[in-house]
């Protein structure tokens, strides 16, 4: 049977109409699949973060810890795995890192020379308690960092860590490239708008930032009311914190042996001399020897600041523990607590702060308008 030219033309048209587009589609699909094929990268070795706690002043235990710190790096270096070691000293273990009482200072120098990946930290609450008990500042060995709580630091290491930056990069490499469509664009804009609105709401609900080089204002969750314990006033009489309801108040805890207090107290004195009627500043001395407070205040020429006395720790407690049932925990020295107009402790900042700055004024204005 002979095929006419018209029939050949029809068959060729069918091929061009169906087979060719299908072939092109398959080729393009295969090319796109090849292009979007995940580029697997060899997994980077995990970072091992090791914490070694020390809470005893026993020299044998200290030497054993140092020996462990010397031997651990060999294990990870043989496996080419990165690592860091952090020694956390708290309670009596702080003596290990004290410049005046450490029985292992020479061994610590050797350890630092051999292992540069080691870090030493001291519980600031323990250090503050020692300083208060001994009535003098404590000097630590060089290159030691402070953390608010030693046990808290150790607890943070036990929590599962989130994704690292290397993990994020692997996820990004495994994500296929997608064209920007109208639906994607609209969804992205809606998501960005929702995120911006949520961020604005968070900023509006929280206090403005106030920080120093080392510390920042910490807003307390579940604020507690101020204690009803009267605070003896240096000039006579007593200070009743419960009577300050309706005002914003700063309650600063300090000591004569604290160098940072010498810097901060004059600023608080100038702040107390302001004309704000909705604001009070109280500075409570924690020295056990009351006789040293008055000469210190006179030397700094503090004239407008209300000076309270708490030598027995009835108003403030040392660190997270302590016997006094009070919201004033001395995590550092100095430390300043902010009391809101409702008579509750709203937050605190450790260390000396610039209370004459614009950021400080914004913080105080925020809580003054919160009532």
Short précis:
This protein is α/β, with parallel strands linked by helices and 371 residues long. Helix content is 40%, strand content 17%.
Please specify the SSE layout and strand pairing:
Layout: H1 5-35, E1 48-54, H2 59-78, E2 83-89, H3 105-114, E3 118-123, H4 124-134, E4 144-147, H5 150-158, H6 165-174, H7 182-205, E5 218-219, E6 231-232, E7 238-239, E8 248-254, H8 259-272, E9 279-285, H9 293-299, E10 306-309, E11 317-318, E12 329-330, E13 335-339, E14 345-350, H10 358-368
Parallel strand pairs: 1-2, 2-3, 3-4, 8-9, 9-10, 11-12
Antiparallel strand pairs: 5-14, 6-7, 8-13, 13-14
Helix pairs in contact: 2-3
Could you describe the 3D structure shown?
The protein has about 375 residues and is of the alpha/beta class. It folds into two domains: about 50-160, Hypothetical Protein Ychn, Chain: A (3-Layer(aba) Sandwich); about 220-370, Glutaredoxin (3-Layer(aba) Sandwich), CATH 3.40.30.10. The chain contains ten helices and 14 strands. It has helices spanning about 5-35, 60-80, 105-115, 125-135, 150-160, 165-175, 180-205, 260-270, 295-300, 360-370; strands at about 50-55, 85-90, 120-125, 145, 220, 230, 240, 250-255, 280-285, 305-310, 315-320, 330, 335-340, 345-350. The protein has a six-stranded mixed beta sheet. The protein has a four-stranded parallel beta sheet with strand order 1-2-3-4, with helices on both faces. Strands 6-7 form a two-stranded antiparallel ribbon. A hairpin with a 5-residue loop joins strand 13 (about 335-340) and strand 14. The longest helix has about 30 residues, at about 5-35. It is globular and about 65 Å long.
């Amino acid at each position: 049977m002979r095929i006419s030219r018209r029939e050949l033309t029809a068959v060729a048209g069918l091929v061009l109409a169906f087979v060719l587009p299908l072939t092109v589609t398959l080729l393009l699909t295969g090319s796109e699949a090849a292009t979007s094929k995940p580029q697997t990268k060899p997994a980077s070795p995990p970072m091992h973060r090791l914490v070694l706690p020390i809470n005893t002043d026993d020299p044998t235990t200290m030497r054993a810890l140092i020996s462990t710190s010397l031997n651990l790096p060999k294990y990870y270096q043989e496996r080419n795995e990165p690592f860091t070691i952090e020694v956390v000293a708290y309670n009596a273990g702080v003596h290990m890192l004290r410049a005046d009482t450490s029985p292992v200072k020479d061994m610590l120098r050797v350890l630092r020379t051999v292992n540069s990946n080691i870090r030493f930290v001291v519980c600031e609450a323990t250090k503050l308690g020692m300083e208060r008990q001994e009535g003098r500042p404590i000097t630590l060995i060089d290159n030691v960092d402070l953390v608010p709580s030693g046990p808290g630091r150790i607890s943070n290491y036990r929590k599962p860590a989130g994704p690292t930056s290397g993990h994020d990069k692997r996820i990004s490499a495994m994500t296929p490239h997608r064209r920007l469509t109208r639906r994607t664009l609209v969804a992205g804009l809606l998501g960005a708008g929702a995120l911006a609105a949520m961020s604005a709401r968070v900023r509006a609900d929280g206090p403005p930032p106030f920080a120093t080089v080392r510390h920042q204002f910490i807003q307390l969750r579940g604020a507690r009311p101020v204690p009803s314990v009267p605070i003896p006033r240096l000039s006579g009489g007593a200070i009743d914190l419960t009577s300050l309801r309706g005002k914003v108040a700063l309650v600063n805890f300090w000591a004569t042996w604290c160098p940072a207090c010498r810097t901060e107290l004059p600023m608080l004195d100038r702040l107390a001399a302001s004309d704000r009627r909705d604001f009070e500043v109280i500075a409570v001395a924690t020295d056990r020897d009351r006789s040293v407070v008055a000469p210190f205040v006179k030397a700094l020429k503090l004239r407008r600041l209300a000076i309270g006395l708490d030598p027995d720790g009835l108003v403030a407690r040392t660190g997270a523990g302590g016997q006094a049932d009070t919201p004033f925990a001395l995590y550092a020295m100095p430390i300043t607590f902010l009391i809101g107009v409702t008579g509750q402790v709203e937050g605190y900042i450790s260390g000396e702060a610039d209370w004459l700055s614009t950021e400080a004024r914004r913080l105080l204005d925020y809580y003054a308008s919160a009532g």
